[in-house]
Amino acid sequence: MRVDNLRQKMAEVQLDGFLVTQPENRRYLSGFSGSAGVLVVSAARHGLATDSRYYEQVRQQCPDWELLEVGYGFTKAMPQLLADFGLAGKRVGFEAADVSVAALQAWQESLDGQAELVPTEGAVESLRMRKEPAELAAMQKAIALADEAYMYIAEYIEPGMTELEVAWALESYMRTHGAQALSFESIVASGPNSAKPHAHPSGRKISAGEPITLDFGCVVDGYCSDITRSFCLDAPAGERYLEVWNTVRQAQQAAIDGARAGMSGAAVDALARDVINRAGYGDYFGHGLGHSLGLAVHENPRYSFTYQDEVPAGAVMTVEPGIYIPGWGGVRLEDVVLVEENGVRLLSAAPKVAVI
Ligand code: ZN
Ligand code: ZN
After folding, report:
1. What is the pTM of this model?
2. Residue 65 Cα to ligand 2 middle (Å)
3. Residue numbers of the domain that contains 20
4. d(CA 63, CA 86)
5. What's the gap in Å between 290 CA and the centre of ligand 2?
6. With 47 labelled, which of 131, 188, 266, 306 sits at a CA distance of 20 to 30 A?
């Protein structure tokens, strides 16, 4: 059971108990997909404290977890709950990146010294880095559906459509073909809007011969996909577009060819960044090369100049270099890869062309 791996981590840092509140971590450990609840874990017991909206769901989704019926009163129930779990006077970890200052104060007031709350970081996230076969299977489905949606939209998109119309067509395709949700708000950015890496779709009409970027993904069986394609309709936005597009394409390929398990995130980032620097566009590639994804669309590890840790085999990563020139437009290409000992395996398959 996944919770036993958390117990191992707890033992390493002398924690007797652990409270999991972060939604994807809660789901990863327990299978519970609801939006509210706290996992209470000790060496011997593990339970899920939630309110009555979810009692039935927990019984169905989490047969191995004790249902702790606390209603909306988790904070009030804490002293008794922790005592029941044998955690009175013990060290209990919580997720510092997820618990607000206000919640922590309320917990401490309720406990009144009856247990020591210990801030932790990344305990469950580190377990989520290496994907299991069932997780990979779900991700493959989400990625294949995003690929298919791109193929659909490449046929559908025409000059005169607005960014919002194209976003809706993409989203409705994914939803009607099995997506449970979108991984994030789809990006459809045209003309100068494509110079903003995270532009929101607008009522702007798309024209032939201008830069267009689509960045989107969907959720299948709880797991996310994330893909970006940039192109022009009918004709390239000048020679410069082809030069920028080819530079991004080469940068992406350099990272895909050179990355393997055990390299630091910064080293993989540099594979792509060097290509863009050499072409003279280094100032226009501000963000990191990629991120892990899974139950959440952005997870650790990262391919980034700021991420010095190694990226292990079994991690699923995006590779998404971009060049963004203010006032003109931008190009980003994003694919998903599985990190393996001797290289990376490309999981996304949507075609990449500069002009459609
Ligand atoms: Zn993306
Ligand atoms: Zn991404």
Report:
1. 0.95
2. 33
3. 2-128
4. 22
5. 6
6. 131
